């Protein structure tokens, strides 16, 4: 149950056992039906996490910190920043933004068709076209899925379609936002996908909604703020190659959904680091909420938390402190 917080099953059972009452290694072996080595290895891990210590009342017994304090300790260990991957991700976002800018106003006329661009207007047109492409895909389907937690309607509609693709042997890789990890229903769906062979990873934010079919065609949203308004199909080799490179770059920096890296104590977590980067770009709370796939209220809470972490009284001061502590570059990327 606590594996997402870095605590394996054996260590968790030992921690729970000590919570019931302080006891020594022999008692734990008898009660939990574990070997002495398993108990001592688990105690070493729990001690490293500051979750157990010798009892002050009886040094021969073990004492577990309260669940409230213990969970705070585990959550604190999850705070980290994967800063080494940010510069590459930024370069990829810039390339994607340039490509989207070049084609945003294109339409499916004769000229654009020859250039490998087809404009799809309206959600019904987009869905119909996606259905055709799904029937044609043979080897690989790559997807950026922004927007945070998925709706029940979307997951119910997608499940049989994805199952058909996976049963046909199509290799699927999907990148969601980190914010889905807090949604139980979405995570159940994601685990269902992984059990059926789909590879899933998450990142703090995504530049746009995108699907790449067999590296021959790509669909991107025409408007990042309203992905249902329209979409573009790109089939020119240069455009598809660029978008595929973008996907692979983001994929390499993304975190597998089945495990999440243990952050360095005291560092920002991935969502906080991304929110800080967006704040430094001057985005509003509403725009940041959209990029992170969370509510505006949650975005404001994240921003407020950053102010506390950075010991700042204003967003300007937070930016100064972030640069001083190495969370942001001293010059814009």
From TrEMBL:
Residues 261-326 form the HTH luxR-type domain. Keywords: Coiled coil. The keyword Coiled coil applies. This is Helix-turn-helix domain-containing protein. It comes from Streptomyces chromofuscus. Gene3D superfamilies: Winged helix-like DNA-binding domain superfamily/Winged helix DNA-binding domain. Residues 75-102 form a coiled coil. GO terms for biological process: regulation of DNA-templated transcription. GO terms for molecular function: DNA binding. InterPro entries: Sig_transdc_resp-reg_C-effctor (IPR016032), TrmB-like (IPR051797), Tscrpt_reg_LuxR_C (IPR000792), WH-like_DNA-bd_sf (IPR036388).
